[in-house]
Design brief:
The structure is a homodimer. Chain A is α/β, with parallel strands linked by helices. Chain A contains eight helices and twelve strands. The first copy, chain A, has a five-stranded parallel β-sheet, sandwiched between helices. The first copy, chain A, is elongated, with a radius of gyration of 26 Å. Chains A and B meet through strand 5, helix 5 and helix 6 of A and strand 11 of B. Chain B binds a DNA duplex through residues 81-82, 102, 154-157, 182, 189-192, 194-199, 201-202, 216, 218-219.
DNA sequence: TTCTGCTGTAAACCTCTGTTAAATAGAGGT
DNA sequence: ACCTCTATTTAACAGAGGTTTACAGCAGAA
């Protein structure tokens, strides 16, 4: 359930929108001016903030500025018609999107969904970080560390190690390694996998003392041992 | 699904653009001259019309005039190089925007989205701003910042970086980069992508200290690292 | 043990990428 | 038309990365 902070002084709109958001499976919190809105935004963690531009006490621009000074929560601005200048200011300050008012709750929720889709990857998304023993691997950064030390791998070496890490503790056949790591089926006398594994091992050995973390399983493939 | 009418006699561009529009979730209809284009526009209801200026039978200006006589459908004009006068006329006649040719499908779709955002704020949700790590990109304004510093990119460099940003954390093949960023399929010995990437990297390196944010994945493509 | 097929690794070889510079193509101005 | 400025593509070469080769060492079977 996504927490949404709704900052707007239009009581009627807020009431309607809050109801609509609840109905659509969100968990909305409400603030009626920029000051208390910003306070809420900073004191709690929200998945998204809906922020009106025109408001008493502290307008949306200043509220956004206050929020952005400390947090990076996605913000969707609600702008009244013809506030074209504000639109640019809003964008420069780092609002993620804007909806021109007047608009229906349906339109707003569509935007909210779009932003959340971007900011929080769906469930089927892969983990950001995979750790096996002393080895930690970040697929989206193509980065590997062995107990804090960065391993300087080439891209193919990284691909192969990634496959092994994802199947840690199980034997991975050369055929699978070739398919997933090199992107082609294993040919009859192809020794590439062996050669790459050899160099990966050498790079790991620089930090691992003695133990062999990548084991060869005769005629079966390779396996990354998990502690 | 937004219905888009595409009126242009450039068969190659139309083919590519149609495909691209479908891919991006639009429902394109095609006409190859002004006369049949205007007929389509008047006989059916579209959310937007893409209209080339230079065409056989009836040019874009006259087609626009014919359409505007009866309908108020948003129109995006495609103008060839140096048709400066035509631009103004086009806008005076009530075109909503124009794109100077040559341009990539990507650029056109960005404009289409911008217009639809104004005319029907709901469905075509597409955030105004995309942030990946220290990098923030505004597709509609064709503007990029690296932690507050504006990156002065050329048009092609921007296109390529935009593609990478939209696929942040995943590898994008040179073939896709060429198609989406340069608007043409990758040829056998084409090194353009590499050269552009090199200069984008240099511009980023001015602000990034040491780390490589655009990684090369040997034989696969490039990947923008995601924090 | 001895034979056979598999694996480890270094080195040769070849392909791909990074980068700079030169050539080409456009756009704007005179 | 011609020149100028800028963006993009092509060309060229150095260097990094990947594959193949070659040979030594190993594992398992007879």
């Amino acid at each position: 359930m996504n927490k949404v902070l709704l900052i707007d002084d239009d009581v009627e709109l807020v009431g309607m929108l809050k109801e609509y958001l609840e109905q659509e499976g969100f968990d909305p919190t409400v603030a009626y001016d920029g000051e208390s809105g910003a306070a809420h935004a900073l004191s709690d963690t929200y998945d998204l903030i809906l922020l009106d531009v025109m408001m008493p006490k502290m307008n949306g621009i200043d509220a956004l500025r206050a929020i952005r000074a400390e947090k990076n929560t996605p913000v969707l601005m609600l702008t009244a018609k013809g506030e074209d200048a504000d639109r640019i200011v809003g964008l420069e300050l780092g609002a993620d999107d804007y909806v021109p008012k007047p608009c229906t709750p349906r339109e707003i929720v569509a935007r909210v969904r779009a932003i959340l889709r971007r900011t929080q990857p769906a469930d089927n998304a892969q983990p950001v970080q995979i750790t096996v023993g002393a080895l930690t691997l970040w697929p989206e950064q193509r980065r590997v560390e062995w107990s804090g030390n960065v391993l300087e791998l080439t891209s193919t070496e990284f691909n192969l190690l990634e496959v092994l890490v994802r199947h840690a503790g199980r034997v991975v056949s050369k055929s699978d390694l070739s398919l997933q790591g090199l992107g082609r089926p294993l040919a009859r006398f192809d020794r590439s996998i062996d050669v790459h594994l050899s160099s990966i091992r050498q790079k790991i050995d620089a930090y691992a003392n003695g133990r062999h973390y990548i084991q060869t399983v005769y005629r079966m493939g390779y396996q990354l041992v998990r502690e």
